[in-house]
Amino acid sequence: MADQGEVKLLKTWSSLFGLRVVWALKLKGIPYESVDEDLTNKSDLLLQYNPVHTKVPVLIHNGKPICESLVILEYIDETWSQNPPSLLPQDPIQRASARFWAKFMDEKALPSMWQAFTKKGREQEEGLASIAEKLKLLEAELEGKKFFGGEEIGIPDFALGWLVNLVPVFEEILGLKIVDEERHPSLSEWSRRISDIRVIEESWPPRDKLVTKWAAIRDHFLATARASSG
Amino acid sequence: MADQGEVKLLKTWSSLFGLRVVWALKLKGIPYESVDEDLTNKSDLLLQYNPVHTKVPVLIHNGKPICESLVILEYIDETWSQNPPSLLPQDPIQRASARFWAKFMDEKALPSMWQAFTKKGREQEEGLASIAEKLKLLEAELEGKKFFGGEEIGIPDFALGWLVNLVPVFEEILGLKIVDEERHPSLSEWSRRISDIRVIEESWPPRDKLVTKWAAIRDHFLATARASSG
């Protein structure tokens, strides 16, 4: 295998966007140094390498930064194209479909999930209805396939990774089911398929720490909403 | 030149997202059939080919649809890689940078511009402050370069196309300047460079029709806001 150069990843212990990059690097067998950021006290490295958003993840390859998780995934796939698996299908129409769904997960599904999780009352109901509608589309898209791109795991699967490890946490905190076997057989099977991949399983943040963290985030959002309407 | 296959583009006469695709096809010299949609009465073709968003643009290549303008641009670049110009730089780091800025223009700059245009009072002030901040970053990024990707026009330039043809329309309607020579010398020069490209200049929708359309859209948003707060 060719020299990979120096690869460093700025992330946090719980960032769902950071995990996408961890999975890609690990699946492709690319050695890297992981640097955990504290977003309440951002490092000079983060401010220097992602001055526009000052957010994680940032991949630093031979001293050059790449920001935005979906952009990083494309970079990894192009730079280490010799390392399987390919993160995008080879066929241009299928590549376009994979990119379409990755965008959909970030721009449509995730905001709906976020609304369902951080709001209450009517706004939460709307968020739940909205995520249900998005899941219906994802379920239909996935039917009969192993992964969103076909036979191989790839960028859209990473983009929906939060469904596998974060939605169960949200369900526990909210005390309701969002994804279930009956309405979402393909998504449920896909979730198990993702969870069974060793390098992904090994990288899950501890469940109890996630529950504590996200319960506090929800409380914070509800308190802020009360304060601004009170 | 190889057979291009059958290329059809669903768009509207004024869609800024549709124009991105028009420019890419024309610059690469790809013959296509243009189908203008009426979004108040969507065609069966649009509902069939973009069932998820039912939005333009949709590129249909040999009967297969590709949706989302940035995804379409990547598809065009991959499928007709032999036709210059390349819409992304060859170097992986520069490709990542081009994708980063295209995302920034869609996800950060355009929503700020939208807020500045469709709101009034304090909300509009916030929108204007926000777009000013985004333009400062874009100005710094562009300094010393012909286009966002370097020497060649490409995806991030198309993604910011609305700055060239739509912002002057917004400025006229609002009666204020958003982009100016003094604060934005590089963006101003870039705008002229884009406007001077013949296939882009030819594709501008008529200025007076744009002013009428967007003034009506702004009135609609302000009336809706009054109705919901009144």
Q: How are the SSEs ordered, and which strands pair?
A:
Two copies of one chain form a homodimer.
Chain A: E1 7-11, H1 16-27, E2 33-36, H2 44-49, E3 58-61, E4 64-67, H3 69-79, H4 92-118, H5 121-142, H6 155-159, H7 161-165, H8 167-174, H9 185-195, H10 198-203, H11 207-229
Parallel strand pairs in A: 1-2
Antiparallel strand pairs in A: 1-3, 3-4
Helix pairs in contact in A: 1-3, 4-5, 5-9, 8-11
Count every beta strand of chain A, where a strand is a DSSP E run of 2 or more residues.
4
CATH class of the largest domain in chain A: Mainly Alpha
Structural class of chain A: alpha+beta
Under CATH, the topology of the largest domain in chain A can be stated as Glutathione S-transferase Yfyf (Class Pi), Chain A, domain 2
Q: Element order, helices and strands of chain A?
A: EHEHEEHHHHHHHHH
Determine the mean pLDDT of chain A.
95
Give a quick account of the main beta sheet of chain A: strands, pairing sense, barrel closure: 4 strands, mixed
Over all CA atoms, what is the radius of gyration of chain A?
18 Å
Tally of DSSP helical segments of chain A: 11
Helicity of chain A, as a percent range? 55-70%
Numbering strands along the chain, what is their spatial order in the largest sheet of chain A? 2-1-3-4
